């Protein structure tokens, strides 16, 4: 089972929107040196929706090759068309990913039965560990706990990323699924609390800029050190909120550029962080101890 701090890695781009392969290698090395436990490539934070299938595959392959087995690599391969998600998942397996992360189909708003059949079809088609991803605030599609429980019995489906931020719902899900089925947090602000309730890790946006603290907080939470985990997490609480002042990954990409981790490149329809938010994000980086005054 993959556990701990799993960074939802940005896809670094040059100002014209081209993928910056040099910075991508640098980011992987940065995260490994800072103690990140796993890398999620080309998820929502990695701007998967604006990459071509070839770019998508190339980023996954590059991350896998650069990691070279040092930490697990999870590839974002979700789509709102089942055949497209199957194709991306096959590509990720061929590229050498350890697992795939599949977001609920967005915009077309399937029923719960549609969600079950969608994910079952992908699991049946591609023999690779698969993690479901529920983020209703972004997709307009909410996968209910009962559907996740049904899917937990499907071969190849090994976990779920719960980005609802609803701890009561998350705890109920943890108690409903089998012990070998992982529930991951997809909400930085509540991740430590969910891990203390039995969650297995945090697929984190904040880890892009504060990887060491996010990893250490996860280690503490996973070993039941509640007070220490919460105390450490409190030192980066302002990041958890200010990195979402605009749609992810707009603020975190700007924050990474301030730390010289990437250039200020992002693809339309996403735009660079609004000037009015620069001071708040910069102050959050300073408070977290990752940017000097």
Helix content: 40-55%
| Whole-angstrom Rg | 18 Å
What is the overall number of helices? 13
How much of the sequence lies in strands comes to 5-15%
Order of helices and strands: EHEHEHEHEHHEHEHEHHHHH
Question: Nutshell version of this structure?
Answer:
The protein is an alpha/beta fold and 293 residues long. It has helices spanning 21-34, 53-67, 82-95, 112-125, 136-139, 145-151, 167-176, 191-196, 211-222, 226-234, 237-242, 250-258, 278-287; strands at residues 4-8, 38-41, 73-76, 99-103, 130-134, 157-162, 182-185, 201-204.
Please describe the topology of this protein.
Layout lengths: L3 E5 L12 H14 L3 E4 L11 H15 L5 E4 L5 H14 L3 E5 L8 H14 L4 E5 L1 H4 L5 H7 L5 E6 L4 H10 L5 E4 L5 H6 L4 E4 L6 H12 L3 H9 L2 H6 L7 H9 L19 H10 L6
Parallel strand pairs: 1-2, 1-8, 2-3, 3-4, 4-5, 5-6, 6-7, 7-8
Helix pairs in contact: 1-2, 2-3, 3-4, 4-6, 6-7, 9-10, 12-13
Description of the molecule:
This protein has 293 residues and is of the alpha/beta class. It has a single domain (4-240), classed as TIM Barrel (Alpha-Beta Barrel). It contains 13 helices and 8 strands. The protein has an 8-stranded parallel barrel, surrounded by 6 helices.
Quick tags:
globular, 293 residues, TIM Barrel, alpha/beta
